[in-house]
What we know:
Strand content: 25-35%
Number of domains: 1
CATH topology: Peptide Deformylase
Bound molecules: nickel (II) ion
Largest sheet: 5 strands, antiparallel
CATH superfamily: Peptide deformylase
Order of helices and strands: HHEEEEEEEHH
Radius of gyration: 15 Å
Number of strands: 7
Strand order of the largest sheet: 1-2-3-6-7
Amino acid sequence: MPVLRITKHGEKVLKTVSKPVDYQAIRPELPGLLRSMWATMRAAHGVGLAAPQIGLNIRLAVIDVRPGGKSQRLVLINPEIVQAAGEQDEEEGCLSAPGVYAKVKRAAKVRVRAQDARGEPWEMTGEGLLARAFQHEIDHLDGKLFLDRLPFTDKLKVLAIVKDLRKTWS
Ligand code: NI
């Protein structure tokens, strides 16, 4: 299970809108790909990882926010938000911008529709951290980072931090 390099803020693959996954076409590679994504996410102590973060522009992400301290692994293939409600404004980070944190406004509650690792459709409503993770990972598939969601003045401050930290990133 190789731990892969995580792409970083500024790389083109993170700014590109990802293509829908053709489940039948990806099926032979999917188990190995998912093992690598879980291993990479765990090694980086993340709660989610999207395919562009391992250099692939396909609509695939994994999430495990460990509700109640227990693992709850979610595989999201071609995910979409079908409902969103409320607002939350919590601190957020990203494995593609390590060490950078900022408060980001998100919906408090979202319902997601996706396919799982077997290609089966599923839907789930998430609140709080899970709702945030759904929105954050789907943003990655649309070529957006959490920094792109910040008001202009906050973004300038955070980009100054990014500039300083960038030399420490691998
Ligand atoms: Ni991220």
